[in-house]
Amino acid sequence: MIIKTFVLTPFQQNTRVVACEETRKAICIDPGERSDDLVDFIKDNHLELQAITLTHGHLDHIGGTADLAKSFPDAEILLHKDDEDLYYGLPQQPLMMGIPPAQMKALGFDYEPPPRLTRNFQHGEDYEVGRLKFSVRHCPGHTRGHVVLAEVSERKVFTGDCLFNGSIGRTDLPGGNYEQLIESIEQNILSLSDDFTVYCGHGPETSVGGEKESNPFLSGANRALKGRFF
Ligand SMILES: [Fe+2]
């Protein structure tokens, strides 16, 4: 299994190429922005980009989809249906973050409408990439249509903005819901075995066991108080 991370966008988002070493089939999880290094890595390593797989529809995870699709027009584009409004609304997303239209271009947030999705991810499906098989798990809470991708035999899970090393995704943006996010993490991520490596959408990797042990948002006391300490 090949995993290559590119830290992109002003939000330091982890764009990843994940590939099957034997068949060279690959996916790009969350292309955050246009990146020549990303395109060169796929070509230089003779990978076949099968799909652009999106964990959710926020701009720092999908902003590079249009450019990557131009370089690899045969790649399918997959996202859960409940984040389609965010995806197709990409050009308007900077407004959601309070960036005035007049400043979007100067700040690097002017987006063309993204290409059509090929289809939607379904909760519970197994998505095959060569010999790799990703279990697709719908994890609403950060956004309505967030999914995580778990490669069970390789003991790896790609968690987007659901779960971070020592933290969880924010829930104050449209579609966010704190209780739902905690439930999603418990049901779909913490239910994996402790030795799974967790590849987060921002920041360093961690493990399921490590987060169970030390993530303050997942401790019993915090859950009982629903995050409200004061
Ligand atoms: Fe996000």
What does this structure look like?
This protein has helices spanning 36-44, 59-62, 65-71, 84-88, 93-96, 101-104, 178-188, 208-214, 220-225; strands at 2-8, 13-19, 25-29, 48-53, 76-80, 119-121, 126-129, 132-138, 147-151, 156-160, 163-164, 167-168, 197-200, 206-207. It is of the alpha/beta class. The model has no long low-confidence stretch (mean pLDDT 94). The protein binds fe (ii) ion (FE2). Fe (ii) ion binds at residues 56, 58, 142, 161.
Using DSSP, what is the number of strands? 14
Order of strands, widest sheet: 1-2-3-4-5-6
Q: What is the residue-mean pLDDT, rounded to a whole number?
A: 94
> Can you write the helix and strand succession as a string?
EEEHEHHEHHHEEEEEEEHEEHH
Give the termini separation: 45 Å
Characterize the main sheet: 6 strands, mixed
Q: Which ligands accompany this protein? A: fe (ii) ion
Structural class: alpha/beta
Strand-residue fraction?
25-35%
The geometry reads as globular
What radius of gyration results from the CA coordinates? Answer: 17 Å
Poorly predicted sequence stretches spanning 5 or more consecutive residues: none
DSSP helix fraction: 10-25%
Helical region count? 9
What's the gist of this structure?
The protein has 230 residues and is an alpha/beta fold. 25% of the residues lie in helices and 28% in strands.
Tags for this entry?
alpha/beta; 6-stranded mixed beta sheet; 25% helix; 230 residues; single chain; globular; binds fe (ii) ion
